[in-house]
Amino acid sequence: MTLLDTSLAQLAQELPGATAIFNHYNLSFCCGGKHTLREAASKASLDCHALEAELLRLKPETEQDRDWTQAEDAEIIAYLLKRFHEVHRVQLVELKRLAHRVESVHGDREECPHGLTEHLHRMAMELEQHMQKEESILFPLLAGGQGMMADGPIQVMLMEHEGHREEVARMDALTDNLTLPRGACNTWRALYSGLEAFKADLDAHIHLENDVLFARYQGGPNHG
Description:
Distance between the termini: 42 Å
Number of helices: 8
Oligomer: single chain
Helix content: 55-70%
Number of domains: 2
Mean pLDDT: 91
Largest sheet: none
């Protein structure tokens, strides 16, 4: 089955980031989620193939499974910036929007993740500050062959990585470990699917930095 013949509801749940595209084009994946991408595009007078191409670009690159231990620092850094830094910034904007929608509409339900929007906002601010430190201080040192001067910044990044993991644990507590309640709407499902993808990306991001890039300057793998 191609994306064109997949329902908006299924795409919203299985392709993190799709909801942002649907929202941009005013395509309802919640109430109108039973329609296929082809049907929804036709109804809205949109180019279905152009829309499909936008969605296909959301699929993550396969380089994440590569053995990075043999790569140069500059190559790893370029990958980190594109695959994780850019992606996190987009992910969190949409996750905050979805969380706000769920809390606004379903706030009277016991299972509603009360406080999740505020928590994601705080996480986004902290992660943005962290990534800016890497981009402006640490990564230029490593890419420029000045890794011997990077011990202090690396220690700060390792400590902040532990803080990110604590924030993820708090997110899990707010969502009952991303457990969907019975009868959850498509927006709620898309939110938890997106949070799951964000968690996996953040974990892979931290692993590549801690255990590969930073470990080169720490005398061995550092697991935090």
